[in-house]
Structure formats: C-alpha cells, structure tokens
Specification:
It is found in: Cytoplasm. This protein is an alpha+beta fold and about 140 residues long. It has a single domain, classed as Nucleoside diphosphate kinase-like domain (Alpha-Beta Plaits, 2-Layer Sandwich), CATH 3.30.70.141. Helix content is about 40%, strand content about 15%. It has seven helices and four strands; from the N terminus they run E-H-H-E-H-H-E-H-H-E-H. The protein has a four-stranded antiparallel beta sheet. Helix 3 packs across helix 4. Bound molecules: 2'-deoxyadenosine-5'-diphosphate (DAT) and magnesium ion.
Length: about 140
C-alpha cells in the first residue's frame, strides 16, 4: 500500500449515536478521498486480533468488548501525508485533551469510546487496511 494512505474505523459508539454521516462529511471535508469502505461488525475475536498490540494493557478487555458491540465503518483514506493529517483531524486519544473542532472532541464520549480509529504509521496503515480489505476492494 502506498504511503499516502491511512486506515480508519468509525467506532460502534459513534455509529450508535447517529454520527456516521457527520464524521464521513468531516473526513471528506478534510481532504481525504475514500478509496475503500465497508459497513461491518467485528467479532470479539477479530477486535482482539486488531488491537493485539494492547493485549497487556488494563483496558484491553473493555476495548475488545466495545469494538465488537455494534456495527462500524472501516475505510481506507488517501491524501498527501495521510497518517499524520488524519491523526490531526481526529484529535487526541482522550477527547478531554482533543483540540476544538476535531472529530474526537465533537463526537467521542470517553477515552475508551472515542468515536474513530486512525492508524499511527504508514506500516500500520498498510497492515490495518489489509486486515479489512483485499486489493480488489480498493478503488483509487
Ligand atoms: P489511539 O486510538 O489514539 O491510537 P491507542 O492506540 O493508545 O490510541 O489506544 C487504542 C484505543 O484503546 C483507544 O482509541 C481507546 C483505547 N484506550 C487507550 N487508552 C485508554 C485508556 N487509558 N482507558 C481506556 N481505553 C483506552
Ligand atoms: Mg493507536
């Protein structure tokens, strides 16, 4: 995968609270092009696998339970400097620390239920994109 891509999930809480359309609008207004997208639901097993890097953290059980609690939207996004620019658009992990106007500031309800995922490196963007999509699912 090219390094001008990042991977996102709109998390179950944001979908449940009716923010899906507004978040997609913020993403496209931020200059990101959606090149793959899926409305889906993670099993607890798949959520655990996706967040395996956090297995030893105290919040892992809660995170897996939350991420498998309802439907999500998974997407691959394209933009110059996609990974860093998307982290800026979504804001800090804890919405209490997130800048005004960011997606997490506007739509997250807590650090654990923080509206959206954004990849933290080009390498992880590629791994996470492949977790959800085949090459034939991507339309650049
Ligand atoms: P980010 O999603 O900003 O990359 P992360 O990779 O450190 O943050 O953590 C992954 C997710 O785990 C995060 O989006 C929400 C949850 N999480 C992180 N820290 C937490 C905490 N202290 N308490 C509860 N959930 C937490
Ligand atoms: Mg992370």
């Amino acid at each position: 995968m090219a390094t001008n891509r990042t991977f996102t999930m709109i998390k179950p809480g944001a979908v449940r609270n009716g923010h899906l359309g507004a978040i997609l609008a913020d993403i496209t207004a931020g200059g990101f092009k959606i090149v793959a997208m899926k409305y889906t639901k993670l099993s607890a097993e798949k959520a655990g696998e996706f967040y395996a890097v956090h297995k030893e953290r105290p919040f892992y059980g809660e995170l897996v339970e939350f991420m498998s609690s309802g439907p999500i939207v998974a997407a691959i996004l394209e933009k110059d400097n996609a990974v860093a620019d998307f982290r800026t658009l979504i804001g800090a992990t804890n919405p209490a620390d997130a800048a005004e106007g960011t997606i997490r500031k506007k739509y997250a309800t807590s650090i654990g239920e923080n509206a959206v995922h954004g990849s933290d490196s080009d390498e992880n963007a590629a791994i996470e994109g492949s977790f959800h999509f085949a090459g034939t699912d991507i339309f650049a």
